[in-house]
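Is this the right way to post structure tokens for a design question? Let me know if I should format differently. Anyway, here goes:
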């Protein structure tokens, strides 16, 4: 039952679980999660990824920020199955941030789900983070826009928090995260998926699905520039939205001022 006095955004959600949670892909961001997102979609799953959250940051990242704050900073109650069902009940698989930072809560909420740990060369991972996440989060325009747009506010709060949790996306944080997943999940329920090496053969054998035709999707959004391009488009769209609001607010003032000036000329 929703607590009418609660200040948590998640407690105002009315979603329910519409399909069983089947897969928790808990590999850290930049370990091939977008490729895995496409692969799971191809196998008939409905995965939740940061790419989905960015469609509505104020809502999705707002809830994600609450969950992360509760876990790492003891701000409010940690998320339970009811909370996850209300948030991501339309999805039967999860990947990427913010969900991968909530491994303890997710594995407790969905003990029957199979777990995938995507991984890659740690040094390559650090380099990828520097070329994508750290580049985007360094744009000065975000620091202004976060005070003018609620979507950017939630996104920047998320980026700042994730950077703090991962020690600036450090190699030691990656290794610490991966070891935590191995500790949490029994070996028989865990697939350690090596991005760039493993493919549909390993994934389908673990999930019990038929191996689809065609190659496993390999998405290198750092090399292609897709990651930077998507965030640049988001930033530019936000700038135009803010400017439109400013213009709309100034228009009445301009009309009154013009009328006053014209009246004084008569």
């Amino acid at each position: 039952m929703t607590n009418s006095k609660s200040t948590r955004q998640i407690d105002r959600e009315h979603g329910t679980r519409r399909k069983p949670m089947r897969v928790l892909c808990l590999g850290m961001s930049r370990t091939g999660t977008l490729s895995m997102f496409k692969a799971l979609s191809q196998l008939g799953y409905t995965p939740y990824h940061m790419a989905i959250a960015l469609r509505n940051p104020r809502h999705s990242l707002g809830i994600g920020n609450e969950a992360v704050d509760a876990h790492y900073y003891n701000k409010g109650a940690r998320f339970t199955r009811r909370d996850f069902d209300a948030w991501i009940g339309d999805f039967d698989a999860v990947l990427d941030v913010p969900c991968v930072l909530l491994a303890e809560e997710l594995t407790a909420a969905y003990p029957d789900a199979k777990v995938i740990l995507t991984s890659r060369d740690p040094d390559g991972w650090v380099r990828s983070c520097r070329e994508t996440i750290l580049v985007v989060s360094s744009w000065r325009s975000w620091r202004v826009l976060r005070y003018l747009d609620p979507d950017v506010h939630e996104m920047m709060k998320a980026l700042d928090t994730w950077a703090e949790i991962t020690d600036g996306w450090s190699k030691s944080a990656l290794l610490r995260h991966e070891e935590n997943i191995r500790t949490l999940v029994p070996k028989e329920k865990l697939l350690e998926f090596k991005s760039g090496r493993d493919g549909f053969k390993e994934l389908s054998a673990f999930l019990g699905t038929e191996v689809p035709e065609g190659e496993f999707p390999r998405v290198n959004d750092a090399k292609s520039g897709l990651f930077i391009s998507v965030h640049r488009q988001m930033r530019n769209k936000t700038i135009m939205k803010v400017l439109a609001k400013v213009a709309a607010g100034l228009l009445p003032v301009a009309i009154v001022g013009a009328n006053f000036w014209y009246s004084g000329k008569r």
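Format looks fine. Someone answered above. Worth noting: The two ends are 66 Å apart (CA to CA). The CA atoms of residues 9 and 86 lie 11 Å apart.
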